[in-house]
Amino acid sequence: MLERLLADARPLGNDETKAPSALPGWTRGHVLTHLARHADAQVRLLNGALRDERVEQYHGGLAGRAERIERGADRPAEALIDDVEQSAARLAATWQQMTAEAWDRSAAGTIAGERPASATVWARWGELAVHHVDLAAGFIPSDWSPAFVGRVLRRALPRMKERLVVEGDISVVVVDDPTLNWSNNRAVDLKVSGPSHALVAWITGRTGPWLGAIETTRSGATEELPAVRPWG
Question: What CA–CA distance (Å, rounded) separates 56 from 50?
């Protein structure tokens, strides 16, 4: 996942990294800086788990996170890509230091709340996959691996009732993997169906032409795709 992202990022020049990403208000430089600072935040959490100490994921919390991303986003392309690569190497080295006991310890300072240190590996995978699309450098949701797509759907669909901004009961039909189909009520009146990668894009808030592959109907009539609350 990282090597594919770096392969897409390395050809970007200064003009390209200063150009808008797929995230409103963020350039590609913001996306790359975020990925680097996220890797460092994971190192911080895991080192805390190794010492059996509680630490915050980001210095200064969410405000500190935002400030560091903003401060780093306008750097030259070469510096941005090197930062992503070097921070990922630091994270990989930290993974090698982790013990079974440390992996089981709480990483309570994460933005997502209380969870074991081992959960940070999935968090990193998700950040790389989703923000690779945000980089707007040719990687799209259909390029996500089946393993990633399946994991997101298995984790997210049971929580859809609390995340959907829609009235009435709903079912989600994954047309290329019926084992992932979900409903919050047997007597649903709203049906969302589409290929798995497009549904993951919808769930994670990644808009684009891929959402056109999703069909939404209420009592047989076509309806707009419902909004979802932020993914995390």
Answer: 14
For 228, phi then psi, to 5°, come to -125, 150
Q: How many CB atoms lie within 10 A of CB 76?
A: 13
Residue range 72-98, pLDDT digits in tens: 999 999 999 999 999 999 999 999 999
pLDDT in the model for residue 2: 94
Q: Provide the pLDDT for residue 109.
A: 58
Whole-model pTM? 0.90
Distance CA 82, CA 32 (A): 10
Q: Which residues pair with 167 in a beta bridge?
A: none
Cβ of 190: how many Cβ atoms within 10 Å? 20
Q: What letter does residue 114 receive in the DSSP assignment?
A: S
CA 50/CA 78 separation, integer angstroms: 33
Question: Residue 196: phi, psi to the nearest 5?
Answer: -60, -45
Q: Is the pLDDT of residue 61 over 90?
A: no
Confidence band (pLDDT; 50, 70, 90) for 189? confident
Which residues have a Cβ under 8 Å from the Cβ of 13 and sit 6 or more positions away?
77
The answer to whether 183 and 157 have CB atoms below 8 angstroms apart is no
Q: Which two tokens stand for residue 24?
A: 């409103």
Q: Which domains does the chain have, with CATH numbers?
A: 2-138 (1.20.120.450), 146-228 (3.30.1050)
Measured CA to CA, the distance from residue 65 to residue 69 in angstroms comes to 6
